[in-house]
Target: CRISPR-associated protein Cas6 C-terminal domain-containing protein
Amino acid sequence: MLNGFCLAHYRFTILPESTISLPMFNKGSILRGAFGSSLRKLICTMGAEAVCETCMLKEKCAYVLIFNPINLHPAKRLYNTPRGYVLKPSLDNEKEYSADKPLTFDMILIGDRIEYLPYVIVPLMELSRAGLGFNRGKFTLHNIEVIKNGSAESIYDPSANMVKNIRKQITAEEIMHTASRLNPHELTLHFLTPTRIKYNSTGERGGSELVRIPEFHHLIRRLRDRINALSLAYCGAPLDLDFRGIADRAQSITIRNHHMEWLPLLRYRSFHPSLHDQSGFIGPITYAGDLAEFLPLLLLGEYTHVGEDAVFGSGWYKIMNLNEFKEE
Model:
């Protein structure tokens, strides 16, 4: 089903040398913008006004390959190639970080983009000198950990400024194995960050509407499409599944209960100055039915997120009842 899909999960901890001011929400978009800007300054030789889409070097450029992968894949449906990483920002409500209050965030690298970890670390070190946040607070990189099966192993020695070559990928086989041990009849998803999904129930052009209470098939359609695009772009093959059938069967899954809320959220885009709507639903929702075939997609979705702006933290959910299921 998942073919050769794989990913790696990293956690970064930074220690501010002075106060770093960040918004309560949208930390992910701030981090993504800072990362991208830092990497481009380090990598790009064509100048600040260069347009990536028409650059003759784009197929070899680390900035394009990681942060702006437009028109890099021969498949027409991948003209707007999804980014091969996901930022998981801190979920705390803090607005200021200091030496005694470090900032932690996670990053997921997918498929062949795992090899680009150095192109994440080096810009982060450069960013530590340039500063982060509204006030450009300086910081030091304190730790990098690789996470698998709930345990974290440090791969960074700050005293020597060295990164250990430790690989701990999460594979399709491991996802499928975990899925086989879950409750196939009921599960609860808790949406931690605003999740923005549109669905066109009529099939007519321009008929898409925002979903405020997600039916199960809304999630499966978006997860199916997102994970398939990521698999095709970075893992060498599309998903092996019945695309139309899995969406049709997802409509038989019912909502048992929910406590969803709508969180209004706007993000300012400086590159093309404008306000971008990131409002979405958050909270727990419980689904019931024959869930077995959907569990691998739902497990992967914890890493890939779902819906709009997933790359910098939106659409992040956790499966709440991950304990092993035992038939009575």
Remarks:
- The domain at 6-170 is CATH 3.30.70.1890 (Alpha-Beta Plaits).
- DSSP finds seven helices and 19 strands in the chain.
